[in-house]
Design brief:
Blueprint lengths: L6 H18 L5 H29 L7 H22 L10 H30 L2 H28 L9
Helix pairs in contact: 2-3, 2-4, 2-5, 3-4, 4-5
């Protein structure tokens, strides 16, 4: 009589392993849940502030008044503060949080570009230099792209709806 060999147990073990791995893809990454719980409100506020500045700048006439530029400068300051608050977070690097780590990098890249955009619009508000306005638009577009990708990824892995896009 033949005794069962180790391969008899291999198939059920592989099947169990496949089920476990399939289940891992459906879970929330720990870092995304932490980010969402601790920073979702800050991210929403920063996105809303950046959208508001963009709308204000988009509505400026060719020759804006001093009052309009002062209002832009105040909004820029508030947006800068909100962006810094929303970007102060980190996740630990491990395989379980790969999606969160990539999203964190994108949000950090976005924050850098958006902060530069805020600097450029402040320069424009002070000196009315067209090059500063052009630089603002370029940095805003770059920052918006990275922000929207990173925030969308974070909300996706946290299984949340309505990421605060810019």
């Amino acid at each position: 009589m033949l005794r069962p060999g180790p391969t008899r147990y291999l198939t059920p073990l592989l099947a169990i392993g496949a089920l476990i791995l399939a289940g891992c893809g459906a879970t929330t990454e720990r870092g995304s849940e932490t980010f969402y719980r601790e920073h979702a409100a800050e991210a929403s506020q920063a996105a809303a502030a950046a959208r508001a500045v963009a709308a204000d700048v988009g509505g400026l006439p060719a020759k804006p008044s001093t009052a309009a530029l002062e209002a832009i400068a105040v909004a820029e300051h508030r947006t800068r503060r909100d962006l810094l608050a929303a970007s102060k977070w980190t996740v630990s690097e491990n395989g379980e949080e790969e999606g969160v780590s990539q999203a964190e990098k994108e949000v950090n890249e976005a924050t850098g570009a958006l902060l530069q955009a805020m600097t450029d619009i402040r320069i424009y508000a002070q000196d009315r230099r067209p090059v500063a306005l052009a630089n603002y638009r370029k940095e805003l577009a770059l920052g918006r792209e990275y922000w929207d990708q990173g925030i969308t990824q974070l909300w996706f892995v946290a299984h949340k709806a309505g990421p605060p896009k810019i």
